[in-house]
Specification:
The complex is a heterodimer of chains A (215) and B (372).
Chain A lengths: L4 E6 L2 H12 L15 E4 L4 E6 L4 H6 L5 E5 H7 L3 E6 L5 E8 L10 E5 L2 H10 L4 E5 L6 H4 L5 E6 L3 H5 L2 E10 L1 E6 H6 L1 H20 L2
Parallel strand pairs in A: 1-3, 1-4, 7-8, 7-9
Antiparallel strand pairs in A: 2-3, 4-11, 5-11, 6-9, 6-10
Chain B lengths: L9 H15 L3 E2 L5 E3 H6 L1 H4 L6 E3 L5 E4 L4 H7 L7 E14 L4 E14 L3 H18 L3 E7 H11 L3 H12 L3 H10 L4 H12 L1 E3 H9 L5 H19 L6 E4 L12 E7 L7 E5 L1 H6 L5 E8 L15 E7 L5 H13 L4 E4 L8 E7 L5 E3 L1
Parallel strand pairs in B: 1-5, 7-9, 13-14, 13-15
Antiparallel strand pairs in B: 2-4, 3-4, 5-6, 6-12, 7-10, 8-9, 10-11, 11-12, 15-16
Classes of the chains: A alpha/beta (215), B alpha+beta (372).
């Protein structure tokens, strides 16, 4: 097994915030601040290697052991159910998975509900708990326009502030589950690199609880 | 016939070593047919882990399946005999869906099953064989061990069942202690029991070091009995110097419907997933109408090819080329000499730059060889 601890971070603002916590915990990698297009950064002194990946791919890197730990949204974990440990809730990137519909939407239970979403598994699971028959329309983006154009009755998507919905004359209808960023670990890495993963998880937990207490 | 050991791939060598390990311990081989009746898998769908089974109708109109599992077939063939234990091992291909690609994958599985009048000694022997199996694969291994009874005892103390029970087990498996605490609180589980659940979730350490702390978490008979059994197994293995890489971890619990006592899962440092899984499964045996106890494990050999990360540098030791007029007998003579000295030889008309070799020899007319 690679001696370095491989950490997959989600590209973007959230990933940068997460990196700051790692740095404060003593696992920094100064070269990451250099302004270039490199995706991999190593700090041999602390034995850490960071890499930036697409947020939805973090779980794949961790599940397959290319990364020992990583930070992924709960939405991705629920949608793909990767075989990983979920070590702590970073209380960052908070939003919710919700059902949204046009302002004048009226749910007619006699009809099959047409649902457009990027998250077919979460959607299927949610409606099966309600025993509601649905027709899932899997889209890859611009979900909001599906109900407007009559492609679907409702959408299941991530809602942060609700502004995008509002601007498209939609409103959140029901919350399925709250979402936030999670620290995940490959199950085998957790066993063989337990010391360092444990330290990082504790440092992050400490940071998160301190931040919560200061609220 | 002599067999050159070098010809075996890593996974084949390990498979043969495992076979010999089980054979030495008196386990007899179990050979099953490629197909089984679909009905058996449907009745034990949860144990098989998926409803996605490849089925077809045979000439007599029976619905058959490509086997997704070996244990069920062994149970079906097992004939209980009072005071005796049946010990079998197997090497079989099973067919299971791959979660990522949604395709059926052929997976090589080796394993043992021990059924009948099981004693603690039998359990220790099976776990010791699991440890030896991991040692065969890699010197850097870990065997996680745990007890379903402890978790079941806790769940009954908490008075939960159905979907809440399922969620608690799933959070234990994810080591998601913060969500576990929230779930317990939301479902009105008392703080004392919640703390125990969270402690079990967070335990991960050398078995010999953490076993005593588990005893302290037990609050009812079921938990105490199970913890005592686990402790006794850990002690027995430690007495045989087999507990150095034995860890206790409750994230490996799995399906509590089929497993009832100790469960275990093995890992090696070079592979990102567990390669060995097993446990005590009296419930499954009973569910199939057989009496007695059962314990066993499987080693997933399909991932073993990833153990050896070195890439081959050469396709052969010697690339032997010849002139258009060279006789076959001369080429063969040179090639045979080289093979006798243990070299691998590939004969080609010329070096087309496709084959990687250590040495290039040319056989001239008359049998003389020149370099290059």
């Amino acid at each position: 097994m690679d001696k370095l601890l491989n950490i997959a971070l989600p590209k973007g603002r959230l990933g940068e915030k997460v990196y700051d916590i790692f740095e404060k915990a003593g696992y920094g990698c100064p070269s990451i601040h250099e302004n270039n297009r490199k995706l991999i950064f190593e700090n041999e002194e602390t034995g850490i290697r960071y890499f930036w990946v697409k947020p939805s791919d973090v779980a794949i890197y961790v599940e397959r052991g290319a990364a020992d730990i990583g930070v992924a949204g709960k939405d991705i974990l629920l949608e793909y159910s990767p075989d990983v440990y979920e070590l702590c809730d970073l209380q960052m990137g908070k939003c919710r998975m919700a059902v949204a519909a046009k302002d004048d939407f009226f749910d007619n239970p006699e009809r099959t509900l047409r649902v457009a979403t990027k998250f077919p598994n979460i959607t299927k699971k949610y409606y099966s708990t309600l025993s509601r028959e649905i027709d899932i329309i899997k889209l890859n983006g611009s979900i909001e326009i599906a109900p407007i154009l009559g492609l679907s009755d409702v959408i299941v998507d991530i809602v942060e502030t609700g502004t995008t919905l509002k601007e498209n004359n939609l409103r959140p209808y029901e919350t399925i589950v709250p979402i936030s960023a999670r620290l995940i670990s490959n199950k085998v890495s957790y066993k063989f690199k337990n010391d360092v993963i444990g330290k990082i998880a504790n440092a992050i937990e400490g940071y998160v609880s301190e931040k919560e207490n200061n609220k | 016939m002599t067999l050159n050991d070098n010809i075996l791939k890593t996974e084949e060598r390990i498979t043969f070593a495992l076979r010999s390990l089980y054979h030495e311990s008196g386990y007899t081989p179990f050979k099953m047919s490629r197909f089984e009746e679909y009905d058996m898998y449907v009745r034990n769908k949860n144990f098989v882990g998926s409803g996605n089974i490849v089925t077809f109708t045979d000439l007599g109109g029976r619905l058959l399946a490509l086997k997704p599992d070996v244990t069920l077939s062994i149970i079906k063939n097992y004939k209980p005999a009072q005071g005796s234990v049946s010990k079998v091992y197997y090497n079989e291909n099973v067919y299971r869906p791959d979660k990522a690609t949604h395709e059926i994958k052929e997976i090589m599985q080796s394993g043992i099953e021990c059924m009948g009048d099981i004693t603690e000694l039998d359990q220790c022997e099976v776990i010791a064989l699991a440890i030896k199996s991991l040692e065969t694969v890699s010197p850097n291994y870990i065997l996680d061990i745990s007890s379903v009874g402890i978790v079941k005892g806790l769940l009954s103390a908490a008075g939960v069942e159905g979907s809440v029970e399922k969620s608690i087990i799933s959070l234990l498996c994810d080591k998601n202690s913060f969500a576990l605490r929230t779930l317990c609180e939301e479902n009105g589980i008392g703080s004392a029991i919640t703390d125990i659940a969270v402690s079990l979730c967070e335990i991960s350490g050398k078995a010999t070091e953490v076993i005593d702390s588990i005893e302290k978490l037990c609050i009812n008979r079921e938990m105490m009995d199970s913890a005592a059994e686990l402790k006794s197994i850990v002690k027995a293995l430690a007495d045989c110097n087999l507990a150095d890489n034995l860890y206790i971890d409750f994230s490996i619990i799995g399906d509590t419907k089929y497993y009832n006592g100790v469960v275990f899962r093995g890992y090696v440092d070079k592979l990102p997933k567990s390669i060995l899984a097993g446990g005590r499964y009296d419930n499954l045996l009973r569910g199939m109408g057989k009496t007695g106890g059962a314990i066993g494990f499987a080693v997933y050999s399909d991932m073993l090819e990833r153990i050896d990360s070195t890439n081959k540098e050469y396709d052969c030791d010697v690339l032997l080329v010849y002139e258009e007029t060279t006789d076959f007998s001369d080429v063969k003579k040179v090639a045979d000499e080289l093979k006798k000295s243990g070299k691998t030889v590939n004969v080609q008309k010329k070096d087309a730059g496709v084959i990687r070799y250590k040495e290039l020899l040319k056989v001239m007319k008359g049998g003389e060889t020149v370099n290059g």
